[in-house]
Amino acid sequence: MKNHLSPGENITLPAPADLRSGDGALVGSIFGVAQADAAAGTPVVLVRRGLFTLPKAGAEAWNAGDPVFWDGAACTAEASGNVLIGAAAAAAANPSATGTVLLDGTIR
Asked: Domain ranges in the chain?
């Protein structure tokens, strides 16, 4: 197929802010995890699919399979005003600073 560019699992986009390797980032409707450090506006590879330990709103409890949203700084169970990025892949206690999230690569 002459028009296939890549599977799209990893995509290079301009960093929306200064990022460290492992940070979550939302570029328009595309969410991914930074593969390396990047300054705002510079190219960064975002990994869009897989299991990741990501920061979460500390005062929440998650169950495996719960939808997970991005609030611009951390994952949350709160849908209002946030972007759906995947699902909890394991239970997360209240309080806890991180949770295991399954990113499915879907654009929302």
From this structure: 10-104
Q: Among residues 93, 94, 90, 83, which one has the least CA distance to residue 27?
A: 83
How far is the CA of 14 from the CAs of 37, 46, 102, in angstroms?
12, 10, 23
Note the pLDDT tens digit of each residue in 14-55. 999 999 999 999 999 999 999 999 999 999 999 999 999 999
- For residue 39, the one-letter residue type is A
**String of b and e for 4-30 (b: at least 16 CB within 10 Å)?**
eeeeeeebeeebbeebeeebbbbeeeb
Tell me which residue has tokens 């975002």: 46
Q: Which two tokens stand for residue 36?
A: 């390396």
Pairing of strands 83-88, 67-70: antiparallel
